[in-house]
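Hey, can you fold this?
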Amino acid sequence: MIRGFSASYAGHIVDDNLGLNGTAANDRLYPNAKLAQAFDWALDISKHIESLGYDEFWMAEHHFQPEGYECIPNLLMLSLYLATQTKTLKYGSGFNITPMWHPLRLAEDFATVDILTGGRVIFGVGRGYHSREVESFGSPMRDSDANRALFEEQIEVIQKAFNNEFFSHKGKHYEFPAKVEYRGYQLEKLSLVPRPANQPVDIWQPLVSGNPKGVDFMARMGIKALIANTPESVLDERIDMYQEAVANHGRSIAKGEDLAVGYRFFIADTQQNAIDQARPYFEEAMKFAAPLGLMQLNPEQIEAVANPDKARGVDLPTIELAAQNKTWLCGTPEMIIEHLKKVEEKYPGLERINLGSTMGMPKQVFKDQLAKFAETIMPAFKN
């Protein structure tokens, strides 16, 4: 049963000259003061959604983006601050890009914010998708197998540190503790000080590609999954895959349990008006994502998205198709309620729905849309 609603914000400050005919993604450059406004946006949005009754606010970790699309480099630090400015809202790490961290430093930092916020920060991990970010931190990104191997060992280290008073580890990338003498004895184990106070620690990860190896790892490690912006038919496959992988590791869950489903959305008096108003945000998101390999486009389409002068005459994805396959929920409140009720019936274990902002969506537009959703749609799911 759907019982929880959250909003997500990746940290964009882009909100002008949008769409395929607007400023090219690589031509967007902003001064430092403008880029730093992502923190003000996060504070404003989090206060707003707390007042509306949302449960969680998810943000994303990213680096080195003067284009202004993803401007939050440290989720745990920002979440700690935001928790001091709000009362009940939880903050989701969507996601700490683990290959850019030392796993024990990430574990320590999360334990610190867990204690200081009374458990109001949700731990999330990801492998990353920006070569500029991950490779600049000295970790593999272009070599997907190497990236996965590093990530999976890091998660093993983090879980050992969270779940054991003392631990040791010896793997391909890490060996703990160091083989040194300490205060007159040979060091053989470490202790994370302090460990998270709220145990067990829920760990979340995006389920994107549906790679069986990755899904099996999530199930084996007890990691929960966010499946966002996924067409209906593919969503069903991903949820089945996750449920089966969990069963293969000896645990039975209801369909949709331990998952969150994410949508982009736009509410208006008709579906066509919603589509028309959402179009520039859909196109700006495509300009951002397509050259990074996040959309299944051919080279001609990617070039057209990256260069507005070449967009004419090239067949590109549309907001109409996104609304049809339900990666975007565009329409009246009644239409969106009807769809989510069907989702609730199909996936009885599903409890969480995440509502994502889109690259380029102005802050006030996002706030207004979240208010409409809270006032007209959430009451249909709040018992």
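Oh, and this one too while you're at it.
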Amino acid sequence: MRPELFIARRFAFKPRSLSRPTFIVAASVIGIAVGTAALILTLSIVGGFASVIEGKLITFTSHLQVRQPDDRLFPETRHDLELLRGQKWIVSASPFLEMNVMLRSRRQGGKGTGVVAPALLRGITPEAAHRFATGSSGAFPPLQRAASGPLPVMVGKSLAETLGVKAGDRIMVVGLGGNGPAQLLEGRQPVVELLSSLDLEMATVAGIYETGLTEGFDDIVAFADLRSMQERYHPGMVTGYEADISDLRKLPAASASVANALGYPFSSFTVYERYANLFEWLKLQKNVMPLLIVTITVVAVFNIVSTLLVLIIEKTREIGMLSALGLEPGRISALFMGQAFMISLVGIAAGDLLALGLSLFERRFHLISLPEKSYFIKHVPIQIAPMDYALVSAAVAALVLLFAFIPSRVAASLKPGTALSA
């Protein structure tokens, strides 16, 4: 072991007979450990939050969708699907059909009538239903095709609570036929003609799903089998195609490739474009991170600088003795740099262990809960990423060594006569 490191270790971790510099060192180690753990936990929570919400959005829909202007319906063709599936990075593709409807349950409302709630009825293929079911909780059995009888539908937990229904209950699906909502609201047609244009279908609640995405998702979207919806409402027609890709980093390029391949009037939209408001919200959460990181880092840096200055005062006589014995100022500076490195190393290791322990504890017991309606999740999500631990540890060590240079030069500038007479 080099003499500088040996002396630095004794200065940092061995108490003198009359003074206790190890107490100051312990306080510095604890400060670095707490700062390191706070940085890592901040990155883990923000990363976990973004990962969970992004995963929920992608599972709820798809990586990209292909539609026509104004969401108008168009005939489903095998040629379009094969062309879509043949594009680079596309791993799966399927058609879907969407309808704005009203759902009416038998639960008694305020005036003795059934409860009515608006909904988006979404017809999907069994393959898409299986993918969605793996990413949601609740009773989500395979969608069944029903050529006759009630239409099996899956409703979100929030929507089911609004309607007051459970699995197995019957509801009425009210859809507008050839007339748009404007004609219905403006009353430009006789009441009898308007009523005759309504598509009334009985449906059965086949299951209740829960994604945690309450507003705009679980509270409004109901799923049904695509072919069953087509047979009842729009034979052979679809709202668009949805596809998943193998690498989300290639999503913009894949979307542009799909739009060019299908041509006008098709347009391709990625999941980040369709839910831009939510992803901007997630980006806003990440934008706060630099401020937190800078604040915690500054505290850690001042902590180590003040600790070294106190240690220099404590070891003034020892520094004078080393200088009198012929130790050059550069080596004295290296001695205190080594001391700072050892203190930071112990603090960083303790901070890493503290962050890992708290992360595993929270993931196991979920002690911190969140309002799901506001955050789309029930508990704080923590993503344990080894890269976050490595980057934070390296950054803290580098900053400590950088700012430890100032007190180390102070120690090196002490004159032997002045130091020994202190």
